[in-house]
Amino acid sequence: MAVKKILRYGDPVLRKKAEKVHKISAKIKQLVQDLFDTMYAAENGVGLAAPQIGVSKRVFVLDCGTDEDPLPPMVFINPVIVRREGAVLSREGCLSFPDVYTDVKRYGNITVRFTDLSGRPKELTVEAGTLLNRAIQHELDHLDGVLFVDHVVYREEVEQALKEQELPPIEPERILQEPELDAVLATPLLSSSSLSSKE
Question: Average pLDDT in the 129-141 region?
């Protein structure tokens, strides 16, 4: 078992764009095992991306299974979202931001293409409002140096939480302008998710 240190917000590695994986080597397989070991050792962890343990590779793992939806643990290598529609508000946390939670904007239904640990290409369509949906988007963001606070809705709430946890403040220049999501969320048929596990 190899439990690695999870980098905290403020570490520059979390802002780097991760490198594509060209070969599923023994080193990549060990990275995946380290990610699972570290995620399971963390409280409420349901997802972890390689940059969060200091490895700038396009890999993340998820375990979003629940009693109601017993999904198996999943490995995503070189993931790309190829279809997205709709929008939801999602209350999220992150293992790199201990005890910080806030509402963020996410796409609704998504389709993601990726490679599994056996080297097989996969495509997965995930419906809005599920833990799996927002976890995929959250972890894929990590591979691009994007953090969940970049999607912030209530900035003052986040600033206060960051201060309480002695973490750096929000970087205003990194807050994403997302007019297509804002337009959907402004409609009266807003769908939202209030789950608060950490990714």
Answer: 94
Q: Render pLDDT for 150-168 as a digit per residue (tens, 0 to 9).
A: 999 999 999 999 999 999 9
What does pTM read for this prediction?
0.91
Residue of 18, 54, 16 lying closest to 34 (CA atoms): 54
Query: In sequence order, what are the beta bridge partners of 49?
Result: 60
DSSP string over 49-117: EGGGGT--BSEEEE----SSS-PPPEEEEEEEEEEEEEEEEEEEEETTEEEEEEEEEEEEEEEEEEE-T
Give the residue carrying structure tokens 């939806």: 69
Q: Is 139 a catalytic residue?
A: yes
Catalytic residue (one of 139, 157, 171, 180): 139
